[in-house]
Design brief:
Shape: globular
Number of helices: 13
InterPro entries: Leu-rich_rpt_Cys-con_subtyp, LRR_dom_sf, LRR_FXL15/At3g58940/PEG3-like
Strand content: 5-15%
Number of domains: 2
Pfam families: LRR_At5g56370 (PF24758)
Strand order of the largest sheet: 1-2-3-4-7-8-9-10-11
Order of helices and strands: HHEHHEHHEHEHEEEHEHEHEHEH
CATH class of the largest domain: Alpha Beta
Number of strands: 11
Helix content: 25-40%
Distance between the termini: 38 Å
Oligomer: single chain
Structural class: alpha/beta
CATH superfamily of the largest domain: Ribonuclease Inhibitor
GO cellular component, one term: SCF ubiquitin ligase complex
Largest sheet: 9 strands, parallel
Organism: Dentiscutata erythropus
Protein name: 21255_t:CDS:1
Radius of gyration: 22 Å
């Protein structure tokens, strides 16, 4: 029995050539950096070492990056981990398929970094920007969405005073390779100029986390009318206070492959889902695929419990 931890794998890699051959790819599958000095040590390693390791790295994890206890200012850290250094690292990993970063390094995620990450890393399938909420990060995403092309949103009104919204894509999707996208707790980014354009360019998305984002029914209506909804297996809308119960129900009814649905809310921020709409969701054919359902903060009634039991 081989424990899947780095210490055990590193020890196995030193046993002999055969062990090294099998343990090293597992060891370097996920490369995580917690402190600045480990990141710079890896970047400054000899070319032979980097060339061998770069073919093995599949996941670059910067989500746990921290400067706590280093007695260094944020300005000093920015001089250590720069956008140029990150771009060099991304280009060094041709087989990279997963990238994750948190708010501690959001200042490094510039327009140039986004271009390399989204457009040059052709094998990238999963991107996580959890907690990135600075104006600089939002501006970089805004500039990137202008580069790839935005969605034209038109609102019309009929003779009865009913309004309808239509979406028009002006160019071909450029991010078809992307399957998982997370903007968890990124409240500052705009749904008009950033979220909807990015979703329009990712038709093969299966995992979408918009928990804590400042989205409205507009985003849900776009998803419901796009092909993305038929492929989504994980949809997280926790703490999205500006979306309506009707829009949630309408979208979920289109998601035939949905396995995970998160509508969690807390005491301060609730994701409003009415009893009738929740029952409609639970009784729909799609609900039979559910493996995880989070309706925290919702009022649980006997009717809802009955609907859950039926599925």
């Amino acid at each position: 029995f081989l424990r899947n931890d780095r210490k055990t794998l590193a020890t196995c890699a030193l046993v002999n050539h055969t062990f090294n051959l099998h343990a090293t790819p597992i060891l370097y599958h996920t490369v995580a950096f917690t402190f600045p000095h480990t990141f710079t040590l890896f970047v400054n390693a000899s070319n032979d070492i980097k060339k061998r390791c770069s073919q093995m790295v599949r996941h670059l994890d910067l989500s746990g990056f921290s400067t706590c206890g280093l007695q260094k200012s944020s300005f000093e850290i920015q001089n250590v981990v720069t956008p140029g250094l990150l771009i060099h690292t991304l280009r060094s990993f041709p087989e990279l398929n997963t990238f994750s970063v948190s708010e501690s390094l959001e200042s490094v995620i510039t327009f140039d970094v986004l271009k390399v990450l989204f457009l040059e890393c052709k094998n990238i399938k999963s991107i996580d920007f959890c907690g990135c909420a600075s104006k600089q990060f939002s501006s970089a995403l805004d500039e990137f969405s202008r580069l790839i092309g935005r969605v034209k949103i038109e609102q019309s009104c009929n003779d009865y005073g009913e309004t309808s919204i239509s979406f028009h894509m002006t160019c071909k999707p450029l991010l078809s390779h992307l399957q998982k996208l997370s903007f968890h707790e990124c409240p500052i980014i705009s749904e008009y100029s950033i979220i909807i354009p990015l979703l329009a360019h990712t038709p093969k998305l299966t995992h979408l986390d918009l928990g804590g984002c400042s989205i409205s029914d507009l985003t849900l209506n776009f998803l419901a009318g796009a092909n993305i909804s038929t492929k989504l297996s994980h949809l997280l809308l926790a703490k999205c206070k500006n979306i309506s119960s009707d829009a949630i129900s309408s979208l979920v009814s289109k998601c035939s492959q949905l396995e995970t649905l998160n509508l969690y809310g807390d005491r301060d921020i609730t994701t409003s889902i009415k009893e009738c709409d929740l029952v409609t969701i639970l009784r729909s054919p799609n609900a039979k695929n559910f493996q995880t359902l989070d309706i925290g903060s919702s009022q649980i009634t006997p009717l809802i419990l009955t609907a859950i039991k039926e599925n």
